[in-house]
Amino acid sequence: MPYVELRSNESQDQLLKRFRKEVTKAGVLTTIRRKRWFVSKSEARRLAKKKAIRRMRRRQRRND
Predict the structure, then answer these.
(1) What residues in the chain have per-residue pLDDT under 50?
(2) What does the pLDDT read at residue 64?
(3) Is 45 among the domain residues?
(4) Exposure letters 4-33 (e unless 16+ CB within 10 A, then b)
(5) Could you tell me if residue 44 is inside a domain?
(6) Is residue 5 part of a domain?
(7) How far is CA 14 from CA 5, 7, 27, 49, in A?
(8) Does residue 26 fall inside a structural domain?
(9) Number of domains the chain contains
(10) What is the pLDDT of residue 24?
């Protein structure tokens, strides 16, 4: 869990900005979104394969 302490002469806005950055870096929100619904192992494999194919196609288009 991300944790930040208030530094001397730091405003609440700066503290909040640092906290949001830590949360993003830790991947907390992406984990929550991913675990929001149950996805079976076969479904996860199928989605990963589909994502990999899309990634390969994008890379091919960029190289052409």
Answers:
(1) none
(2) 80
(3) yes
(4) beeeeeeeeeeeeebeeeeeeeeeeeeeee
(5) yes
(6) no
(7) 11, 10, 20, 41
(8) yes
(9) 1
(10) 95
CA pseudo-torsion sign 54, 59, 60, 64: positive
- Residue entry with tokens 């991300």: 2
Q: In which domain, by residue range, is 38 found?
A: 12-63
**Residues sharing a CB contact under 8 Å with residue 18, sequence separation 6 or more, in sequence order:** 4
User: pLDDT of 31-41, one tens digit each?
Assistant: 999 899 999 99
**Cα(40)–Cα(34) distance, rounded to whole angstroms?**
12
Indicate the residue type of 20. R
27: left (phi over 0), alpha (psi -120 to 50) or beta: left
